[in-house]
Amino acid sequence: MKCSNCNSSAVIYLAYSKLNLCKQHFFRLFEQRFKRTIREFSMIKKNDRVAVGLSGGKDSTVLLHILSKLREDLPFELIAITLDEGIAGYRNKTLDFAKLETKKLGVEHKIFRFKKEAGISMDEIMEKDKKEIPCSYCGVMRRYYLNKGAREAGADKLAVGHNLDDMAQTVLMNIMRNEPMRLARLADPLTEDDKFVPRIRPLMRTPEREIAIFAILNGIDIDFQECPYARHAFRAHIRDQLNESEEKYPGTKFKIVNSFMALQGIMRKSMEDTKFEISYCQKCKEPSSGDLCMFCTMMEDVQSK
Ligand code: SF4
Ligand code: ZN
Ligand code: ZN
């Protein structure tokens, strides 16, 4: 198959735009979309210190590479933060990849271990409470330590590897769970409290499949293994449904995310009228909507089991 833009052989077919692209034209599209997304939302300013939440999986590793390359055009500092949840047979492998990549790129790397920070690993939590859904615990802990870690590292922004598929899944999950306020908060990545490091998602318009192909074509070392707890997640169900829809109706994921973006303005406006009172957790002093933050509430729950 020939590239739709030149005479070279195609390496990828993009069903949503009916384009076959060679390596060179695919890289061009990939990088241009990435830069456009950063510009569109003013994600990174000159001399910012950007912390990348690096899991060692394909999305965050590609994000680290491409941000590192972006520094040729825009000077800013880059550091990487990896959380070690303590999931045997999984995180230790991706952690090795994360160490390798940061070393290769010369990027400072900080590792936060649940066991050391919270006194308990994910495997130990699941041992105590087999009925619980792992990601509901892990998600709260991840958000907590990524924010804390980025702030302590002096970061102005926290870049996460969420791709187009993740975004479309999150939008649908919030709708299907009837959690409009969560959806509204997703629309507003810049929280005013100083203790929150603003999150940026430079890959939010990039399909997951294209990230995987970009990684392979660039020879980026990646472990494609999935977290053993992921199968429990509601997200896995939505992901399968969305992939099926995308196959039948190419462009579905873009359409979901674009609809969400179009509604952003309206959601932000309605949020202005219902101002969130940010207070601080009485126990850990991190930002919280109640007396105890989600993290401390969850830890008390775990310890009582
Ligand atoms: Fe944690 Fe769930 Fe992600 Fe596994 S899939 S690392 S349990 S949030
Ligand atoms: Zn071409
Ligand atoms: Zn707390």
CATH architecture of the largest domain: 3-Layer(aba) Sandwich
What fraction strand? 5-15%
N-to-C terminal Cα separation, in Å? 59 Å
What is the helical fraction, as a range of percent? 40-55%
User: CATH topology of the largest domain, anyone?
Assistant: Rossmann fold
Order of helices and strands: EEHEHEHEHHHEHHEHHHEEH
Tell me the structural class: alpha/beta
Number of strands: 9
The strand order across the widest sheet is 5-4-3-6-7
Our count of helices gives: 12
Please outline the major beta sheet.
5 strands, parallel
3D architecture notes:
By secondary structure, the chain is an alpha/beta fold. The protein contains 12 helices and 9 strands. It has 2 domains: 1-29, no CATH class; 41-274, 3-Layer(aba) Sandwich (Rossmann fold). The longest helix has 22 residues, at 252-273. Bound molecules: iron/sulfur cluster (SF4) and zinc ion (ZN) (2 copies). Residues 281, 283-284, 286, 292-293, 295-296 line the site of one zinc ion.
Produce the secondary structure layout.
Layout: E1 12-14, E2 19-21, H1 23-40, E3 49-53, H2 58-70, E4 77-84, H3 91-105, E5 108-113, H4 114-118, H5 122-128, H6 134-152, E6 157-159, H7 164-176, H8 180-186, E7 199-200, H9 208-217, H10 234-248, H11 252-273, E8 279-280, E9 287-288, H12 294-303
Parallel strand pairs: 3-4, 3-6, 4-5, 6-7
Antiparallel strand pairs: 1-2, 8-9
Helix pairs in contact: 2-3, 2-9, 7-10, 7-11
